[in-house]
Amino acid sequence: MLGIAVGIAAWGLITGVAMGKSGMPMPLMLLMSFIVFAGSAQLAVLPLMASGAPLWVVWATALCVNLRFVIFSAQWRPYLIGYPLGARLRWAYITADLSYVMFMRRFPEPVPAPEQPPYFWGGALTNWVAWQVPSLIGILFAEAVPVHWGFGFAGTLALLGLAMALLSDKSTAVAAAVAGCAAVAAYALPLKLNIVVAIAAAVAVGLLMDHVGKAHAAKPHVDSEEIK
Amino acid sequence: MHSWEGWIAVIGLTLLTLVTRGFFFLSKRELPMPRGMNQALRYAPLAALAAVVVPEVVMTQGQLIDHWQDARIFGAVAGGLYFWWRRGILGTILAGMAVMLPLRLGLGW
Prior knowledge:
The complex is a heterodimer. Chain A is an all-alpha fold.
């Protein structure tokens, strides 16, 4: 747990510094840290907000980065659906990637149990504090870090690691390459629309590759033998 | 971005986080998983991250960089190699910064 908390703290510090350097007013930065509480989405939208992207592009980007949580939420459902709405809302606010991974490892059977909420809240609150304290330190001391050091690059590296964690096979790798190239090629578009273009292109290529892969698999085996 | 837009952006981001994290358990009703959604969900987060990361590494002021002496490229490669080797995000950040900072501060790349 200590190693995980150190990782969370570093990530929080980087996000805090990125917020501190974004030029947002201080109360807004504090509000963002406390109520949004989604590191990768925050890091992804900060450059967009700083460059004046329209709200819908900011939200669309955050939505795409957050889509993995939709998959997690389907797994959470059998454990949580018996609790009142308020409890489920609190759970939704605070559950991030690590709380999900740790909980599912500890309780692989999808049945509710009385020991689950204490286990979850212990981990989730530790995670929350390990994130918020460095995030606030980052916001408050961002000005002390010289701009030309390029500390913002740490945030880019964090997103790079997260993106690589999502690479699982050839089609995800191709989709990521398409997204990267499209984002650069379409960079001149106004309103940061290059991000939207890149996501659309990558999802289209990914779905196409799934489709072609299935069509190949459906062909009789002799076909591929004859081609050789 | 106007100042009021910042506040609306943050409130919207909060709602987005809540709704995505609780998508399938906030409502008591059974929501069917739309067809094809599973697959799109496989690509969209990765695509959004790649679309943010790649321009941050290879572009300066809206232009593709045209020389290889850029500290960010070496930093990103070092971070990428570390992740490929050990799969840890903290190490990726440290490895990337350990390569990027000396090149930038020492050589001015």
